[in-house]
Write a structure and sequence with these properties.
alpha/beta; 47% helix; 472 residues; binds iron/sulfur cluster; binds S-adenosylmethionine
């Protein structure tokens, strides 16, 4: 039985409901009249439900598809302007007791070097990240209660926040660790994390159990209900995602939206972000052994349809994707990207030789953060190092109401400009600095409120004199 507000995984992610949705979408993929009605609803900027969005995802009418892409682009512009938030992953430990078939950290992999950073090593990694210009991290660990208990994660978060190298500062630590208890989520909240991120991998229960044959992650319900426990523990910004390639993408798409609808129905706030990782080659993992890989065109359609279905939800894309692919999906809805990433434990200080790599997967976009920032600026985007919202208490529904009231342009936009200015003063190459300066001058006129604009101009001058961390 499907019940959006049930607390049981199998009811809010009902297999039957997904199968019915896929059948409905398939039947209507050329139903132009229905597609027009759905698009008209989508134009109201209030999102779509999983059934409506699933029809758009499989729509075969070329003209309608162009409308879908154009609408996704417009919604992206309306809600996020041209800002792109920057972050980097930080791998703390690759010890893992799970058996995930797609991940080289799985417990049976005997030859991957197992590493766990000491607090001193974390310091060095964080200094390397700060010296690149990063302000926002996503912590990554395998699941291992002995080698990587919650106390270690909490201590690491404290260490990270305490490091201030030169003008460097990590101001937001997001956390991507295994599903855990309400009590542990509460501890993470108290440690001052930003978003708690957990990928469902696949919403298809039967496949999920096969792909996770051993370890605690095998428990589908415990994993799927994790975000409810996180919210019960006081974390109101959660990030969901599916690992594309494991199961049929249309199934995952419906599952992701049903998950978002469930969080909204039960907790009054949907996910803060959605991630769309695709499986990558890794130590003992060959992505070709998974049957459900999607090509770049399908991937772009997926991103566009997510953008239309959940306009207020940020969308994240990592360096799993190439420069070319990232460029395409930035237009269609992605609002956060990583840059200069390493997926190995300790990889920012000491790049590892390939044959001894502790990395989780191969990276497609190998550019430095400065190259990524430069590229974004030259495409007319504003790379943003802003972390203001959660530090100002704008999380969960408070953040969502800010989005919905359209006030973001008086808040996120100036914050993006001021944090980009900090980046340019402290870390940018000459060319990036020059291009960034022009961008900032141009973008000042896009701050709607005059008073705000004046404050920003003043703060930009203060940043030049050495002051940091201005925010609205
Ligand atoms: N261990 C925690 C977990 O499984 O939820 C979180 C951290 S894990 C390092 C982060 C994510 O990497 C996983 O959720 C999975 O989706 C993704 N991942 C694993 N193997 C991958 C691969 N070969 N290619 C791309 N992404 C992968
Ligand atoms: Fe461990 Fe996470 Fe990799 Fe699974 S995906 S093997 S839980 S690190």
């Amino acid at each position: 039985m499907y019940r959006v507000d049930s607390m049981k995984a199998e009811e809010f992610i009902s297999h039957e409901e997904i199968m019915d949705t896929l059948a409905y979408a398939q039947e209507n993929k050329n139903n132009v009249e229905l597609i027009d009605r759905i698009l008209a609803r989508a134009r109201q900027r209030k999102g779509l439900n999983h059934r409506e969005a699933s029809v758009l995802l499989v729509c075969e009418d070329e003209e309608k598809n162009q409308e879908i892409y154009a609408l996704a682009e417009q919604i992206k512009k309306d809600f996020y302007g041209n800002r792109i938030v920057m972050f980097a992953p930080l791998y703390l430990s690759n010890y893992c007791i799970n058996g995930c078939i797609y991940c080289p950290f799985h417990a049976k992999n005997k030859h991957i070097p197992r590493k766990k950073l000491t607090q001193e090593e974390i310091r060095r990694e964080v200094i390397a990240l700060q010296d690149m210009g990063h302000k926002r991290l996503a912590l990554e660990t395998g699941e291992d209660p002995k080698n990587c208990p919650i106390e270690y994660v909490l201590e690491s978060i404290r260490t990270i926040y305490s490091i201030h190298h030169k003008n460097g500062d990590i101001r937001r630590v997001n956390v991507n660790i295994a599903a855990t208890t309400v009590e542990n989520y509460r501890k993470l909240k108290e440690a001052g994390i930003g978003t708690y991120i957990l990928f469902q991998e696949t919403y298809h229960k039967e496949s999920y159990e096969k792909l996770h044959p051993t370890g605690p992650k095998h428990d589908y319900a415990y994993h799927t209900e994790a975000m409810d426990r996180a919210m019960e523990g006081g974390i109101d910004d959660v990030g969901i995602g599916a690992l594309f390639g494991l199961e049929l993408y249309r199934y995952e798409f419906a599952g992701l939206l049903m998950h978002a609808e469930h969080l909204e129905a039960v907790h009054g706030v949907g996910p803060h972000t959605i991630s769309v990782p695709r499986i990558r080659r890794a130590d003992d993992i060959d992505p070709d052994t998974f049957d459900n890989g999607i090509d770049d065109d399908t991937f772009a359609k997926l991103v566009a349809c997510i953008r239309i279905a959940v306009p207020y939800t940020g969308m994240i894309i990592s360096t799993r994707e190439s420069q070319k692919c990232r460029e395409r999906v930035l237009h269609l809805g992605v609002s956060q990207i990583s840059g200069g990433s390493r997926t190995s434990v300790g990889g920012y200080v000491e790049p590892e030789p390939e044959e001894e790599s502790s990395a989780q997967f191969d990276i497609s976009d190998n550019r430095t953060l400065d190259e990524v920032v430069n590229w974004l600026i030259k495409m007319g985007y504003i790379p943003s190092f802003c972390t203001a919202c959660y530090r100002e208490g704008r999380t969960g529904d408070r953040f969502m109401s800010l989005c919905k009231s359209g006030q973001i342009q008086n808040c996120c936009h100036p914050n993006a400009l001021m944090t980009l200015k900090e980046y340019m003063e402290d870390y940018a190459s000459e060319d990036t600095r020059r291009a960034g300066e022009l961008l900032i001058q141009r973008e000042l006129s896009n701050i709607p409120r005059e008073k705000t604009r004046e404050i920003v101009v003043r703060n930009l001058a203060e940043i030049e004199k050495g002051k940091r961390d201005f925010r609205f």
